[in-house]
Amino acid sequence: MPFILALLVFLSVSLLVLAAGWQLGHDPKLRERLEWVARMGPRSLREIELGRPFWQRVLRPGLVRFGQVLSRLSPQDYRDRVRQRLLVAGSPWNLQASEFLAIKGAVTIGLALVGFFIARSILGVLIGALSGWLLPDCWLKTKSDRRQVQIQKSLPDTLDLLCVSVEAGLGFDAAVAKVVEKSTGPLAEEFGRLLQEIRMGKPRRAALKDMAHRSQVEDLGTFITAIIQADQLGVSIGNVLNIQSQEMRRKRRQRAEEAAMKAPIKMLFPLIFFIFPALFVVLLGPALIQIMEALQGML
After folding, report:
1. Which of 4, 8, 203, 299 lies 20 to 30 Å from 184, alpha-carbon distance?
2. Any idea which fold 149-254 has?
């Protein structure tokens, strides 16, 4: 009896395996997938290298070599400033300081040649070279300023979420993880990097200070300083977050009021140079035409 039972189990399993194999063998999608996996088998180093994008294979290594030459020619403090500005801008395209210097050099040479072919003079070369040297800096400053504004605007709402999470019973690290999960934008990216550094073993205070150093946002620096002091003194994180959230909202309201007070002054220049001349032409134009016709009739 046990032998017959074992034989029946063996036959049943064998039939199931054969049926599954037949079904899988006649599935076109699965067959295409298996053929693709077979084609994507072990590849040589040449095939792997040729499979990379042209930017990573050719352009970026060339920029790195060119940037290393420019880095050796540039002062150390200038390289440090470029590195800091890249951090504030969020490290666009994962650019290093030497690569950014290489881009500046390439753009400078390119626009200098364009200025020479257009103007056919040394002045055109100088204007093109100066424009090429300043344009990457302007782009980087615009990107960093926009990122700082986004961090500053999203900070009060993020602090509210942190405060609610901590008051619900989560620890600070878990609350930061919740912010990273529920939020998007530069501030969420900074909190995600903060959480990653803490998980990799960096002390929380050092990770928070690095975050403030990367962002260069005054409100975020104030918040980080308050968190570090609360951690050192043993103060409740929830109370600190609540106070900081109210403070950030008060500062945002003050900035909005300040911008509203500046609006009339900013509107003065368009009124004087664009709107008032058009009004004068519309209102005084017919009168001037009638006056000129009357003077011609008298003469």
Report:
1. 203
2. Receptor-associated Protein (1.20.81)
